[in-house]
Amino acid sequence: AQSVTQLDSQVPVFEEAPVELRCNYSSSVSVYLFWYVQYPNQGLQLLLKYLSGSTLVKGINGFEAEFNKSQTSFHLRKPSVHISDTAEYFCAALTKETSGSRLTFGEGTQLTVNP
Amino acid sequence: DSGVTQTPKHLITATGQRVTLRCSPRSGDLSVYWYQQSLDQGLQFLIQYYNGEERAKGNILERFSAQQFPDLHSELNLSSLELGDSALYFCASSLTSGGVHNEQFFGPGTRLTVL
Questions:
Q1: What is the pLDDT of residues B27-45, one digit of tens each?
Q2: How many CB pairs below 8 Å do chains A and B form together?
């Protein structure tokens, strides 16, 4: 079964600093990976996804992630964060089943951007 | 706004009771997914329906059941509620069932509190 591990439960940073949120996955089958963001009292919004091809994936709001097969990682990065980036971030892997699919989520990383 | 609607937004009930959570997918989406987000278990997949048929099942309790109706809206029924069922329940929808180019769009969630 697939599993996703987010290595940091909380990441505090100052505004305009770079940030990296770490995610590791385990899978013996094809890997499809996603990063979602959850703002307070809201649902999940897709930031970016890796399905195949280029290992550097660019998403919305200036975020990007790099798929690293040898390290089984899919870390999320942003070169300069804003206060508005304060939210919880979830890494997820898609599992395809016989006739359906599911997302397996990591535990989440709370990013807090301080002025 | 993802286009996925969930009602009610909040639900407070007592142990032993039964509740029904409702989800309307985005226009044109045929798949509906249910996820549970709790403090101790994180975000967990419950069940998927595609065009009225169950397609994938997670660790959904026997006290929980779901269905998707001909108009494609879905209901999640939770019975014999326990304190531990208190959680945020998300619905997501997607166009198809198992394809990887198949982004799941999440609703705002229903917060269930069992007293």
A1: 999 999 999 999 888 999 9
A2: 68
